[in-house]
Structure formats: C-alpha cells, structure tokens
Amino acid sequence: xxxxxxxxxxxxxxxxxxxxxxxxxxxxxxxxxxxxxxxxxxxxxxxxxxxxxxxxxxxxxxxxxxxxxxxxxxxxxxxxxxxxxxxxxxxxxxxxxxxxxxxxxxxxxxxxxxxxxxxxxxxxxxxxxxxxxxxxxxxxxxxxxxxxxxxxxxxxxxxxxxxxxxxxxxxxxxxxxxxxxxxxxxxxxxxxxxxxxxxxxxxxxxxxxxxxxxxxxxxxxxxxxxxxxxxxxxxxxxxxxxxxxxxxxxxxxxxxxxxx
Amino acid sequence: xxxxxxxxxxxxxxxxxxxxxxxxxxxxxxxxxxxxxxxxxxxxxxxxxxxxxxxxxxxxxxxxxxxxxxxxxxxxxxxxxxxxxxxxxxxxxxxxxxxxxxxxxxxxxxxxxxxxxxxxxxxxxxxxxxxxxxxxxxxxxxxxxxxxxxxxxxxxxxxxxxxxxxxxxxxxxxxxxxxxxxxxxxxxxxxxxxxxxxxxxxxxxxxxxxxxxxxxxxxxxxxxxxxxxxxxxxxxxxxxxxxxxxxxxxxxxxxxxxxxxxxxxxxxxxxxxxxxxxxxxxxxxxxxxx
Lengths: 260, 290
Ligand code: SF4
Ligand code: SF4
Ligand code: SF4
Fold this sequence. Notes:
The complex is a heterodimer of chains A (260) and B (290).
Chain A: E1 12-17, H1 26-37, E2 45-46, E3 54-55, E4 59-67, E5 74-81, H2 89-92, E6 99-101, E7 108-110, H3 120-124, E8 130-132, E9 139-141, H4 146-149, H5 162-166, E10 172-176, H6 183-191, E11 207-209, H7 227-230, H8 239-250
Parallel strand pairs in A: 1-11
Antiparallel strand pairs in A: 1-10, 2-3, 4-5, 6-7, 8-9
Chain B: H1 5-25, H2 33-54, H3 75-99, H4 105-127, H5 139-155, H6 159-187, H7 191-195, E1 202-207, H8 215-220, H9 226-249, H10 253-277
Helix pairs in contact in B: 1-2, 1-4, 1-5, 1-10, 2-3, 3-4, 4-5, 5-6, 5-10, 6-9, 9-10
The complex binds iron/sulfur cluster (SF4) (3 copies).
C-alpha cells in the first residue's frame, strides 16, 4: 500500500559530511557497481562508449561554489542519493503500490515487478533521487543497500551501504537516525545537521553536515604564497649562455618560429 | 518539464472527450438514435483515444491494470477508476439513447459526475505536486475543468453555454499564467534551500555530477525562450478561446462549429504544450538551472 506508515521502528539513513567530502565520486562508482550486480534490474547505460553516453545512477556528486559577502569563495562537493523521507511524496503518488516505505526501518523501496514506469514518483521527488532505467522501463532508486546491511553472508564490517564502505574521506555515515543515542544522531546534533529543502515538507531522514568555517590563516587581502619563488632569477642571459641563446634564435625555427 | 507528446495529446483529447460526455449525460443536446450514436462515437474516440495515448509514456504498459490498486493515496489511480467508471456508465446510458430511444436520466447524471471526476483527477495529478510550483495551485483543476466544459459545450452544440465558458476559460488561463510566472519565486525553494548552503553566501553550480545528460535533465529541465512562450500564449488565447467565441457569434453558427472546435483544439494543445514546457521542477536547482 502506498499509505505511508505513521511511524517506523527505526529510521535508517545516511549522514553526509559536506566538510570532508573531497568530490572523488568513489561512492558513485561503488553504488553503481553494487546495485548493478544485486537488488533488482541492473543499472543500465545507453551508448556507454559512444559520443553521447548516459546511464542510470542512484547516487551522484554535484559541486557548488559559495561566494560569501566577503572573503574567498568556497567549493563544496555535494553527494546526493535518496533521503528516505518520512513524508515521502514519491510513495503516495504511486498508482500501483510498487513504491513503499518499510515499517521496520523506514527504507523507501520500489518493487520493480509491480512498477509500470509511469515516472510520477520521480516527478514528486524534489531531490532528483529517482531515475527511470531506460533499458528496463522501471524506476530505480537508492535501496540504502538493503541487500548489504542485513546480509549475513558478508563480514560484519561490510554490512553497511557500499557508498559508506568505500568513501576514502569518511564523508558518509550510516545508522539509525531515529535513535537519539546512535553515533549518527550524535554527529548530527554536534555538527548541526540539516534537512535539504525543508519547505517541501518531505522530512528527509538523511542529514547533511555543513562545511566547517574556514581557517583564517591569511591576513586580510589576497596573498600569493608562491609569488616569491616564481620571481625570475635573471631577466637577461649573459656570457656563453647569452651567446648560445642568440645563436639558436638565428637558426630556422628559432624564437620567431611556431611554438608556445 | 519535458513536453512529452503522448501526455499532451492525452490531456487535450481526453479533456475534450470527457467534456462532451459531461454534456451528453446531462441531456444537452437531447438526442436519440443515429444522432446520439454519432455524438457518442466522437466522445469515445476522443476520451478513449486520449487514454490509449497516455499509456505510450509508460515504461511497462503491460502492467497498467496494477494502476487501479492505490486509489487511497494516488490521483493517478483515482483517475484510472474514474475514467473507466465514466466510460462504462456512459456506454450503458448511450445504449439506452441509441437503441431504445430512452433517456435514463439518473444514469446520465451519474455519467456526468464521473466524467467531471475524471477531469478533476487528471488535473490533480499535476496540482498535487509541490515540486512543480507552477502547477501546485487550486487554479490548475479549475482551469482543466472549465476548458473541458467549454470544449465539450462547443462540441455538443451548446453554443449559448460555450459563449459564456470560452471567455471564462480565457480569463482563468491568464490568471493561471500570471500566478505561475511568480510561483517558483514564491515557493521559497531555491539553490540555497536545495543545498542547505544559502545562509553562507551565493550558491553557484560549479560542476554537474556528469558530463553528458541524464534522465533528470531530459525529464525535468526544459527551458523555453521567452519570445517563443509569448507567441504560443497569444496563439492559445486567440485560437483556443477568442476565435471560437467569435465564430459562434456569426450567422449560421452551427456550420462554423466544426471550424470552431478545430481551432479550439489547436489552441488548447498549444496551451498544454506550454503547461509542461514552462513548468519548472525544483530538481533543476541542483543543476543551477532556472
Ligand atoms: S528523496 Fe525522493 S525518492 Fe527518496 S524518499 Fe524522499 S521523495 Fe522519495
Ligand atoms: S514509476 Fe513505478 S514506482 Fe514510480 S509511481 Fe510509477 S509505478 Fe510507482
Ligand atoms: S546506500 Fe547503496 S544504493 Fe544508496 S547511494 Fe549508497 S551505495 Fe547507492
């Protein structure tokens, strides 16, 4: 049923640290890899080696530049996957019941064998977290790696989402955001975790940790730390080197020839 | 939003078809026999033809029957029920008129109500979406209903009513555009809230996540030139509402009715194209679009 559960036993989700994400896209690749080989239809690509490649991804990394009133601009890498919203509009619009939110852990999933590929759920999601697979004709979305986190065939340390496991910067954290004492909840409280587009009323479970303020190493104004090292040591060549320089210039293809 | 031809054809044709059924159910015009058959065939070709066109944009059309299951929360599912119920009820009512020369009024009124409900459900699929501020308004169902009533009235030869409804539709259309042009700015959603970084300064999309295009950009990010949009708006008003109303005022209005319907349909289709093409989905903000 596409009725949303009034409460869920747990609220599993991700906490994404915008301060530490280095924008390497490793989570994008591992997500695509895991989810192509496991849950549901593979994430297809169209024209993958041609001139105009496109494909289905469940997780993508944007990069933004913030220009404050004063001071230097800041670059922020911004990974985005399904936020497993409490008031998930993508679920209630679904005509077939293929989209649902699980009562036991709050994960939002698509039952691909019931999906008619109408796309309405993707229209209803403000975050662009759902993508229609062009080969399969069904809706794909982040499963919170439901086939890893409970998977007893994996060693304990691998029972976290693929993107979390792979992130070299430790920018993605997984846990129960419904439990105020969990590591992720404490992290959110400590760092001032935030909702994306709170005015859309989706009540996302995933939280984003804002970038920390920059260290103020430099005095006011722009300073180029490399400048002293880049000063030319000599502007005019003299002696033997000078003679050689001028002789080479006179050869065909010398200084007046092509080249940078 | 991507103006998918299948959806534009569907909403335009089935809107007109159900509009005609609304009038037929109410016994306007009071026809029986062959004349009734002709009216009903036209209405069913438009309404059902539109519904068939709508299945073309499904990824898995063979599973379409599952769309009847979630009427408790989904407007799309409700639309499926309302449209099938309207077509079945109106079929029985039409059979009475065509074969028995009898008008079962209660059946007709039920069909009228169900046809109205179908148009309402179609409009609500769009109006419910907070993610598309231009659509997220009570004006959207109002506009869809009045367009349907006006077109249906024109087709049913209810020229007096059409003469009232066409200008009303034009006025609603202008109001809808006026509100829609301000809707995104008023919704409070911008790149700042999308990224949560707005309080720190001006946020600019520096690099997209992918070098090529993707489903999201194809489906949700469509930009129409301002001049192009203005021209199409004029076309919508002129062909869709003004010209048919003027044609009705001419002598021998019934002869002109066919032309009036054709012009109306063209104008409404242009309006429907704009309905999608101009609609800004908030996901575009993540790509720095709009
Ligand atoms: S992020 Fe989008 S797809 Fe995921 S639960 Fe929220 S609305 Fe649905
Ligand atoms: S695309 Fe599939 S999951 Fe999404 S609303 Fe349609 S049927 Fe439901
Ligand atoms: S939790 Fe799994 S499916 Fe979701 S973004 Fe991470 S790797 Fe992809």
